[in-house]
Design goal:
Layout lengths: L6 E6 L7 H15 L3 E5 L3 H6 L2 E4 L1 H4 L24 H14 L4 E6 L1 H12 L4 E5 L15 H22 L2 E6 L6 H9 L4 E3 L7 H13 L5 E6 L11 H13 L3 E5 L11 H20 L4 E6 L2 E6 H4 L11 H8 L7
Parallel strand pairs: 1-2, 1-4, 4-5, 5-10, 6-8, 6-9, 7-8
Antiparallel strand pairs: 2-3, 10-11
Length: about 350
């Protein structure tokens, strides 16, 4: 039975990543086609709820966006609960605009910060559902967030290309990838790209260990080495580029020619991979199903092969990090990959 009177809002918050449009489509088309809902797209994340910037999403508007990168709703890093003089006003404005727009539910697509804000708004009395996205794959409560596999593909392709330059010049090449405080992206792209050393925040490293591995490879007449570095690793002094720091230290310790490459925002752009299109669609469609069922205060999640609902109160404020005994870490070590420890 279709819920004809329901009116839901969708917003995308935080950093952009591949799959946002696919998720918007997954939510919107399911809500319109299956449940007969009216769908409102909130522009520029939570800022759009403060400024009343929105657009009605029709089935036609949602057509053709599955493969597009970015977000048709645009995004922002507005955090209405962040401590400043205007915090209470922002939250109150959001609540008032939610009511004036006649929303029965707000579906928030985003990462850790967005899920925390979503939970806080739910505690304020709004009907909220979260959908996890991030190239960092660090949202707690789901096996994977959409955007991750696309970023792994991009980083891996970059590492593949750097292999040829490293081999041609007999250099050590250091590649820094994103990931915030979690090492998922470095781990997966490092393994898939054949990294000889992979440095992630969860496994402490020493320069002595790293350089010992690289010197041994050189002594064994292996012409080059690939070092994949997560942006969240610790360094003795705060550095804007962890890759630059590691490359400089390798040069100092070994005397071997070393260069760094910082992949940066290229990892977040472009069309989503086929796997991310599937994940985005599934998580988005499940969010519409939760809204139809009146199951608010939850985040859609992938567990094994199933879509499930995880309470936002369990997700907010947590980060999913790589465990030292993660199977992929163990298996990479079997191949001779060093984690700098």
């Amino acid at each position: 039975m279709k819920n004809k009177g329901m009116r839901i809002g969708i917003l995308t918050a935080g950093g952009d990543c591949p799959g946002l449009n696919a998720a918007i489509r997954g939510v919107g088309k399911s809500a319109i086609v299956q449940y007969g809902m009216e769908v409102v797209g909130i522009c520029s994340g939570f800022r759009g709820l403060i400024d009343r910037e929105y657009v009605t999403l029709t089935e036609n508007l949602l057509s053709g966006i599955l493969t597009e990168g970015g977000t048709i709703l645009r995004t922002s890093r507005e955090k209405p609960f962040k401590n400043d003089n205007g915090t209470l006003d922002k939250v109150q404005t959001i609540k008032e605009n939610y009511k004036e727009l006649g929303l029965d539910c707000l579906i928030c697509l985003g990462g850790n910060g967005t899920m925390k804000t979503a939970y806080q708004l739910h505690k304020e009395g709004l009907n909220i559902i979260g959908v996890p996205k991030t190239i960092d794959n660090d949202v707690w409560g789901t096996d994977v967030s959409f955007g991750f596999y696309s970023a792994v593909n991009i980083a891996t392709e970059a590492i593949d290309r750097i292999h040829t330059t490293a081999n041609s010049h007999k250099r050590i090449m250091v590649i820094e990838v994103m990931g915030h405080h979690a090492g998922w992206l470095a781990l997966y792209s490092g393994v898939s790209g054949g990294g000889d050393v992979i440095l992630i925040p969860e496994i402490p490293y020493t320069m002595e260990s790293i350089c010992s591995v690289l010197t041994k490879r050189y002594d064994e007449r292996k012409p080059y080495s690939i070092v994949v570095v997560a942006e969240g690793i610790d360094t003795p002094k705060p550095k804007k580029s962890k890759g630059h720091y590691i490359a400089k230290k390798i040069m100092e310790y070994t005397g071997l020619e070393t260069r760094e490459t910082i992949l940066g925002y290229i990892q977040r752009g472009g069309s989503p991979s086929p796997m991310d299109r599937v994940i985005s669609t599934r998580l988005g469609a499940h969010a519409a199903e939760l809204a139809h069922s009146g199951k608010f205060g939850f985040m859609t999640s992938l567990r094994d092969t199933d879509t499930v609902a995880v309470p936002l109160k369990e997700v907010a404020g947590k980060i999913k990090t790589v465990q030292k005994d993660d199977p992929l870490v163990k298996e990479a070590r079997l191949l001779g990959t060093s984690f700098g420890d």
